[in-house]
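Input record, target 12 of the design panel.
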């Protein structure tokens, strides 16, 4: 989404042991976190929604998720592999770099930019299918975050796009968070006052309060993901 808004935020993340060190360093910033050598590293592969576009250092999706896990005693660290403006094609292109030997689980948050650009749902499906297949080959449990298309491109596009996430999750045995923006939509009464609480001025990215609502619902599934990875 960042490119659509004229801004690209690149997040630097490493591979191998550097990946683990970076993830642990982020996690250690949170009070009460006790890092262990066998802590599960969860890579969050995504776009600006993962990268934390427009938010403070500790207000984005990854730091909020980290805090949620830490306060519940989950021995895991979340690596922010979000790049603003990224599409499913971009995520696939950098997947091998993201999946270092230390990564034990994967969150996939991609597809929103494809949808905003009207990318053919078949292409979106193909890219996500390849990402999930590679994660499966690496033996990683996956949590796929879903998106739902508006009616701008017509009912056929909407139906094809919306079907991608549940169908691929089922095909690859991945966990599914049905709708990234679902927690916000549930509170949308149509008023600008309410929307401005949960969405930034661009109408595309959640505010800190919006992220907090998403993490409240997403957190239990990430905890379950970490537990799956630890069991392996």
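The sequence produced for target 12 reads:
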């Amino acid at each position: 989404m960042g490119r659509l808004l004229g801004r690209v935020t690149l997040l630097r993340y490493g591979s191998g042991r550097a990946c683990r060190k970076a993830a642990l360093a982020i996690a250690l910033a949170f009070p009460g976190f006790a890092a262990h050598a066998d802590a599960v590293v969860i890579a969050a592969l995504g776009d600006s929604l993962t990268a934390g576009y427009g938010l403070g250092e500790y207000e984005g999706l990854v730091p909020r998720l980290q805090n949620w896990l830490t306060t519940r005693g989950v021995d895991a660290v979340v690596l922010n592999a979000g790049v603003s403006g990224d599409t499913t094609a971009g995520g696939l292109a950098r997947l091998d770099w993201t999946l270092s030997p230390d990564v034990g689980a994967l969150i996939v948050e991609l597809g929103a930019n494809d949808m905003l650009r009207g990318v053919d749902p078949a292409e979106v499906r193909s890219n996500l299918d390849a990402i999930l297949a590679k994660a499966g080959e690496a033996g990683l449990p996956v949590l796929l975050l879903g998106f739902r298309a508006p009616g701008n491109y017509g009912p056929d596009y909407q139906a094809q796009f919306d079907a991608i996430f549940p169908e691929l999750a089922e095909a690859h045995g991945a966990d599914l968070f049905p709708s990234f923006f679902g927690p916000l939509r549930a509170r949308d009464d149509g008023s600008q006052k309410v929307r401005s609480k949960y969405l930034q001025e661009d109408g595309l990215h959640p505010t800190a309060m919006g992220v907090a609502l998403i993490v409240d619902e997403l957190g239990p599934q990430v905890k379950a993901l970490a537990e799956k990875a630890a069991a392996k």
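Strands lie at 40-46, 76-82, 103-109, 142-145, 175-177.
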